Amino acid sequence: RLRRSVHFIPGDNRPFLSKALSLNADTIVLDLEDSVKDKEVGRATVAEYLESIAELRRNNGSEVLVRINPLSGEGWREDVRVGLLSDGFMVPKVESGEELRMLDDVLKELEQQHHHHNVVGGIIKPKVLLPIATETPAAVLNIADIAKGPRVVAITWGCEDLSAELGSYGTRNADSGEYFGIFQHCRNVCLLAAKAAGVQAIDGIYQNVRDVKGFEKETREAKYMGFDGKLTLHPDQISMLHRVFEPTKEELQEANDIVGMWEERGGKGSLEYKGKMIDLPHYVRAKKVVAR
């Protein structure tokens, strides 16, 4: 499944929720954590919303996740019960794969008790997990284990909570706008851990929603690094993100040329294309571009 855009919506904001499926985001995240003060109101609103869109979702391609509260605190079990009609859960502040294995056990028990499985075309679809895997120092050190956790289909990263735990005075260089080294490291290891585990890598948020050029620049960088998608905070970011992640005509033409030439030769030896030597890694990358 495509997860280019993973878009947050406050779980207690009815006007925003009413427009969620029309945003054309690949994944919608109904937030019950940071953006919701009154958790009970948020849970009631999300539960009502999920019931109201059950039929609509049969003809809508958007994946719907619920961001629960941290597994180390209170309230997450109630969040999970509320989200049983969703496709799965975004899990914040995860610190180990063991936490995800515990959550998997809870989900199995709840699914058996309530039989709230999503059924698409007669196929039972279990809940998926998308952890935010760099929000504490321990999480960064355990990220490979987190990425390999049960039900995990993608991981993403965040630096604001980590910055607070580290006592940092910010996350970016004020002059260049680039991440400080420790946070760029988190971005890098998120990508590496995801690919090593065979799951998708989702780039973190771009905090300044009014900085259109900055968002586009960071999104393009994420694409070229190898990320599969990016978190979004504002609806206007979604269409731009999709445009950036779509291969350009030139990129697609080059990828098709390389795939065709490589397969015509039966994958034997290197070949030259536009003055460059093409080997197996270039072919593999070109196949991924064509697949998009």
TrEMBL record:
Q: Which residues bind substrate?
A: 67, 135
Q: Does the keyword Oxidoreductase apply?
A: no
The EC number(s) given in the record are 4.1.3.6
> Would you indicate the residue range of the signal peptide?
none
GO terms, molecular function: lyase activity; magnesium ion binding
Gene Ontology biological process terms, A to Z: oxaloacetate metabolic process
Q: Does the keyword Ubl conjugation apply?
A: no
Identify the residues that the record assigns to the HpcH/HpaI aldolase/citrate lyase domain, covering every copy: 4-235
- Give residues annotated as binding Mg(2+): 135, 161
Instruction: Give cofactor(s), names only.
Output: Mg(2+)
**Top-rank taxon:** Eukaryota
Q: Which keywords does the record carry? A: Lyase, Magnesium, Metal-binding
Q: What is this protein called?
A: Probable citrate lyase beta chain
Tell me what organism the protein belongs to. Thalassiosira pseudonana (Marine diatom)
Lineage of producing organism: Eukaryota, Sar, Stramenopiles, Ochrophyta, Bacillariophyta
